[in-house]
Specification:
Belongs to the DedA family. Keywords: Cell membrane, Membrane, Transmembrane, Transmembrane helix. This is DedA family protein. The protein is mainly α. It has 10 helices and no strands. Helix 3 packs across helix 9, helix 4 packs across helix 7 and helix 6 packs across helix 7. The longest helix is centred in the C-terminal third of the chain and has 29 residues.
Amino acid sequence: MATPLSLGAQLAVNVLDAQSLLAAFGVLGVGVVMFAETGLLIGFFLPGDSLLFTAGLLCTGSGQHGVKLSLPALLVAAAVGALAGSQCGYLIGRKAGGALLARSRSARLKEGAQRAEELLDRYGHAKAIVLARFVPVVRTVLNPMAGALHVPARTFFLWQVVGGLVWSLGLTLAGYALGSSVPNVDAYLLPIIAVIVVVSLAPLALELLRSRRAAKEGARG
């Protein structure tokens, strides 16, 4: 029988650490985190990008931590959690408006809300909804913001599905591909995750550069 100390150690999960979450909850944890990060404002701090990539890597069984996940089950859990969470966030925004964000004391969350609104204004609904998936915090708050700003339900659903599938399945399969080709790749997991964060911001950075160039050209003309 497990002692209280060993049970306590098993339950001591670091929600900010992808490997800790996966070791404790497996595929189910991925689905829950995807839902919370994209659907609930309290989930803005969760490690979505790194969790998806690490989970894909652990599907190969090449890691040193004794955790191996089923790739088909992982893909389903990641996609369902990401899509259901986004839709939930949108519905919360439609009903509660900006009241939830207004009551929040988190400066990071409010900054994310401002960036989300700027994305919707600058790039239009479709492009903003897809781009937001790749920006931490923004992918959490854009969904209720879209609901509060009355983005058409069909438009939101279509593009959140497109963005959600590209984001969740793309990062998971990228981790799986790297884990399949590089032995003991988890030894380099921290720098890899840092690269993922930088790459995840690339679509937004490219769009900002394009918009600035277009603005300059328009001013010259």
